Every structure is written in C-alpha cells, then in structure tokens.
Amino acid sequence: MARVCDLTGKRTRVGNNVSHANNKTKRKFYPNLQKKRFYIPEQDAWVTLKVATSTLRTINKNGIMAVLKKAKEQGFVVY
Q1: Is the pLDDT of residue 76 over 80?
Q2: Where are the alpha helices (DSSP H) in the chain?
Q3: Model confidence over 16-44: pLDDT tens digits?
Q4: How far, CA to CA in Å, does 11 sit from each of 19, 27, 48?
Q5: What letters, b where the CB count within 10 A reaches 16 and e where it falls short, cover 45-57?
Q6: pTM, whole model, 2 decimals?
Q7: Are 54 and 47 spatial neighbours (Cβ–Cβ below 8 Å)?
Q8: Are 72 and 65 in contact (CB under 8 A)?
Q9: How many Cβ atoms sit within 10 Å of the Cβ of residue 20?
C-alpha cells in the first residue's frame, strides 16, 4: 500500500543524506501518516482514512466536510 495521504495526496519525497565529508546518498522522507476514523454526520456514517498529521490539523480547523469537499475538487480518492 502506498504511503499517500488520502485527502491531500502528500507522499514520500526523495532527498540526500549528507555526511560530514559531504558524501551524498539517497534517502526518503516519509509523511507522518495516521489511520483515523471520521464521523460524517451528513451521511450518518464513519469513514476510515489514512491522513497526514498536518491534514488532521486542517480538519480540526475547517471541519471534515470542508476538507472532503476540497479533496474531491482536487481529484483525490475519498470515501
């Protein structure tokens, strides 16, 4: 299963480990993904989504329905 946020599309990034001698080797930066259940009152249903913790902060600020609507407009897979 891919490490991708269901609502924002945030995914693994690639960068370099840089040693003290300035040698560079490839590494990955993984998003901080959490599996979380959300209650959708309009549908009277619970949905389980894999979201980044930064997305959780946005959900707390704007509400789950606003974030789901924006994710649907951007074309990400949601519930």
Answers
A1: yes
A2: 53-62, 64-74
A3: 999 999 999 999 999 999 999 999 999 99
A4: 25, 14, 18
A5: eeeebbbbeebbe
A6: 0.84
A7: no
A8: no
A9: 5
